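HOLO CASE FILE
Compound: heme C
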Amino acid sequence: MTDILRRLGAATAVTLLAAGAAFSHGDVAPQPMNTDTLPDLEDPEEWRTENPYREMGDEVMAEAIRIGASGYNQNCARCHGLESISGGLAPDLRFLEAEEYGDEWYVERFISGYTQNGITKMPAFGELLGQKAAWAIRSYIETRPDDAQIEEFSPELMEIRDQLASWAADGTGDSTAAQAKLVEIGEQIETLSGAPVADSVALRAAAILAADPNNFSKAEETLTVGLSAAQ
Ligand code: HEC
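Model generated. Tokens follow.
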């Protein structure tokens, strides 16, 4: 009897140890992502080695970035940094080349995570989140702007923001020139991955004004939030 108890006790201890190893180092369970609005991939079980959304046009890419941003913030940011700007805990993912070479490496880590001497340094995400989530997060990461360039343009961006704020307060204004200026700045801000377009606050604010030239307050808010995140 006592033997059985002891053995049960030992088995429990072993299970707890194993669980402890699996959940050490801030290993929180992956947070599910809703990827329904993204196009399905053929053979979803077969992992691609290159981001499939990159070739599907601007609209799909924009949706992938939107979904990837929240997936990234919930699953990756605590180690790899907000906005994918690493604080040194884990590698800075913005530098992974936005082509097959970088993608292969990315997806390998995403699927398997990383374990060193039995300690999980990065949890495996592949099975739990799946392929659409993987490439949505990849799309977000590869389009992060170079934060040094955002800083360089921040005086000009703040000027535009203040202008938008005063139009919002007055309830009237002409944002045509401001929108053009935002596009001009946005086109000069690069990615660190080599992806052709950076998803910067400048282009985000320009897109808001393109959709509604009188939406001064939303464009202003986007610039304010983006500029404070970049500091
Ligand atoms: C618990 C912390 C942690 C979390 C959460 C985490 N990672 Fe990591 N990740 C690491 C560490 C540590 C490394 C470095 C491993 C190594 O030495 O190769 C790493 C490496 C990587 C690499 C290889 C980078 C390179 O330059 O070699 C990629 C890609 C990656 N992670 C993607 C992700 C993605 C995407 C997520 C979210 C879905 C994520 N990671 C979540 C800790 C984490």
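CASE NOTES: Residues 204 and 222 are 7 Å apart (CA to CA). Residues 25-27, 75-76, 78-80, 90-91, 93, 96, 106, 109-110, 114, 121-122, 125, 137 surround heme C (CB under 6 Å).
CLOSED: yes
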